[in-house]
């Protein structure tokens, strides 16, 4: 039998081990933040390649349905400067922009990049489309995306419904139109698992991958897809940070405390969606703090405009 002193020694060993692991993990998190602050300028430059000057596009968009675009984008007015990063975030529903991509949006805005949002539905699954559009604009204002940089698609072929297969041709035409009109150099969206497995998320990725592999995107346009991760990693908040840091990725965006508070404030703008489990999501989701991306290879072809 163990003596009381033996039990005490075991308890002390366990306690010291727990404290040591906690301190070591805390130090590792602080180290990641420190290293990231030093490396972010390099990552920022990685996605800063200008696309092209207006009037020198090298592709021809497929025929688009102009009625599908809300008129807050002033489609026919060209916008481009050769020196700034022009990033396009493509989402499926209002709240995707802050629920999954807030760290990236905030880092790009902080770096003076021009950030645009193309949301491919109004989120009308429960007949709340009008309210959700207003909530999306409020969220974007918090994140730093101007309202005239936000386009929300309202088309019956792109409903907020995981049971409906979205039209690849329609998504393609809308994306190509947007890239042309806004001279986009970086596109950010979901990966093949859609983070949450939502079919609408996956449809965007599949369309972009098709456009990239078919050489229909302009030379210099980079595509990044957001890594989907396991359920365990997804809900351990900042504790997941060292894991993301150690695993390979092509682009990494990490939020600090002040940025997390802005992401949380943006999420709270989506009042119609704030069910109890989404409030838990705000507290525990790693996507509120960390985004890692994989680059999608873009084939280039010389496509003439006729």
Give a quick precis of the structure.
The chain has 306 residues and is of the alpha/beta class. It has helices at 4-46, 96-99, 102-110, 129-143, 168-182, 194-197, 199-213, 231-234, 241-246, 257-268, 276-284; strands spanning 86-91, 114-119, 150-152, 186-190, 222-226, 251-254, 290-296.
Describe the structure.
The structure is a single chain. Helix 4 links the parallel strand 2 and strand 3. The chain has a 7-stranded mixed sheet, with helices on both faces. It has 11 helices and 7 strands. The protein is an alpha/beta fold and 306 residues long.
Report the end-to-end length measured between terminal Cα atoms.
90 Å
Mean pLDDT: 85
Question: Level of helix content?
Answer: 40-55%
List the total number of helices. Answer: 11
Estimated share of beta-strand residues: 5-15%
What general form does the structure show? globular
N-to-C SSE string, H for helix and E for strand = HEHHEHEHEHHEHHEHHE
């Amino acid at each position: 039998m163990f003596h009381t002193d033996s039990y005490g020694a075991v308890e002390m060993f366990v306690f010291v081990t727990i404290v040591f692991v906690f301190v070591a993990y805390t130090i590792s998190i602080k180290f990641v933040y420190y290293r990231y602050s030093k490396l972010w300028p390099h990552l920022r430059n990685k996605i800063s390649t200008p696309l092209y000057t207006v009037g020198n596009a090298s592709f021809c968009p497929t025929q688009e349905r102009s009625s599908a675009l809300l008129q807050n984008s002033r489609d026919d007015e060209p916008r481009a400067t050769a020196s700034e990063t022009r990033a396009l975030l493509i989402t499926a529903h209002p709240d995707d922009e802050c629920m999954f991509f807030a760290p990236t949006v905030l880092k790009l805005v902080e770096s003076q990049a021009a950030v645009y949002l193309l949301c491919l539905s109004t989120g009308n699954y429960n007949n709340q489309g009008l309210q959700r559009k207003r909530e999306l604009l409020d969220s974007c204002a918090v994140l730093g995306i101007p309202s005239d940089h936000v386009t929300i698609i309202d088309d019956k072929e792109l409903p907020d419904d995981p049971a409906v297969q979205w039209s690849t041709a329609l998504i393609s035409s809308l994306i190509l139109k947007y890239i042309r009109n806004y001279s986009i150099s970086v596109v950010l969206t979901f990966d093949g698992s859609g983070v949450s497995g939502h079919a609408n998320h996956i449809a965007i990725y599949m369309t972009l991958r098709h456009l990239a592999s078919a050489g229909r995107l302009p030379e210099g346009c980079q595509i990044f897809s957001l890594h989907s991760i396991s359920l365990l990693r997804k809900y351990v908040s900042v504790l997941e940070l060292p894991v993301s840091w150690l695993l390979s990725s092509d682009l990494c965006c990490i939020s600090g405390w002040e940025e997390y508070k802005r992401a949380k404030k943006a999420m709270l703008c989506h009042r119609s969606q704030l069910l109890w489990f989404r409030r838990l999501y705000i507290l525990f989701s790693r996507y509120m703090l960390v985004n890692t991306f994989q680059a999608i290879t873009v084939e280039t072809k010389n496509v003439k405009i006729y």
